[in-house]
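Researcher: Last one for today. Full complex below.
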Amino acid sequence: MATAREVREIVPPPVLTQHLLLSVVEQMKLPLMSIARRAELGAMPGGQVDLGEIRVTADAAVQLLDNYILGVQLANQEVNLMQTEPVAISSVLHSAGQRLQPIAKAYGVRLDMHIDGKYGPVMAHRRGLEAALVSLGYALVEALPAQDAPQLKLQLSAHRCRYGIVAGIYCDTEQITTEALRIGRQLYGRARQPVSGVSHTSGAGIFVADAILHAMQSQLTTSRYHRLYGLGAILPLNPQLQLV
Amino acid sequence: MTHILLIEPDLLLARSYYDALKTAGHVVTAVPSAQAAVLAADESKPDIVIMEVQLVGHSGIEFLYEFRSYADWQQVPLIIHTVVPPNEFAGARDLLMREMGVTLYLYKPQTSLKKLLRSVAELVPLDIR
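Model: Here's the assembly. Have a good evening.
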C-alpha cells in the first residue's frame, strides 16, 4: 500500500488534471462559435463581417491556450522555476493590460490601471505571472457584460496585504468571494458553470491562472480593494529587494 | 413584424444573433441575464423567446419558471438555444417540453444562423409575421 507521501507524488498537480483540460476545451467553444457565427453573418445578404473582432476573438483564445500550456510546462518543470527574477509589478500589470486591451474593447469593457503606492521589485516568474493575470482578465472581461447592470470597468491594480503584495484584476462584481472561489475549485471540470455567480462560462481563465500560480508556488486569492472585488496573485515581499 | 426576446450572456455572440435576426426583419430585444429578461419581457411583449440556460446568477431554468407563471406568457413559443448538449438534459426533457413549454431545443455549437432563422420563422404564428 502506498504511503501518504507516495500517493502525493503519484497524484498529478492540479494543472495536469483532465478537469482543467475539460474546462479549457469547454471555454474554447465560445470564441470558436463567435467566429463561426460572425463569418456566417458576413456571408448573408445584408450582413456585415467585422474582421477585426474575429481576429481579436481568435487572438484571445490562442492566448488562453498558450497560458494553459505554460501552466502545464511550469507544473512539469519544463520551464525552469529557478528562472525567477526581480519583477516590477507595475510593469507586469502594464504588459497584461496591453495584452487584454483588444478583447476588453471588443466586449465594451474599460481597462484602468491603479497602483497604490510604490513597490520595489518582487521575485517572481515574470512570464507566469503575466500569463496568470491575462487569463484572469480574459475570464472577467467575458463575464462582466453578462452580469445584471454591470459597470463595464476592470481595474488592474496592486496593493499591500498581510502576506505581501496582491497584484490582481478588480471589478464591481461582489459575487467574487473566497467561498465562490473555493466552490469553483471543487467544481471545475465537473460542473458546466463552476463559478455561476460570476461567469456564464466554464471559467477556464480563472482556473488556468490558479494552476499557473500554484505551479509557481504562489497563490490565487480573492481580494477587496477600494470597494471593488477582484482576483489576484499574492507575491511575497523580499526584504533585500525592497532595499533596491 | 416579430418581436423577439433574445437572452444571450456572451456579448459577442449576442451581437451576431442580434444582427442576423434584425437583418431578417425582426425586432429584437437582447439581454444578458434572467433578471433583465423578465423586465424586458414585460416591456417588449415578445412573440417568441430565444434563450441560453447557462446564465450568470439566476439560471435560465429559473427564468423559465417565472416566465411561464404569467398567463400572458404561457403560449409564447420558446427556443432553448444553449451550449449545454441535449444529452445532458435527457432526463429532464419531459419537464422542459411539457411542463415548461419549451418549443424547441437547439444545441448552440451545432446551430447555424440559417437554422436559427428558419426555426423562428416556423414557430411564429403567421398573423404576427
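Chain B has a mean pLDDT of 92. The two ends of chain B are 5 Å apart (CA to CA).
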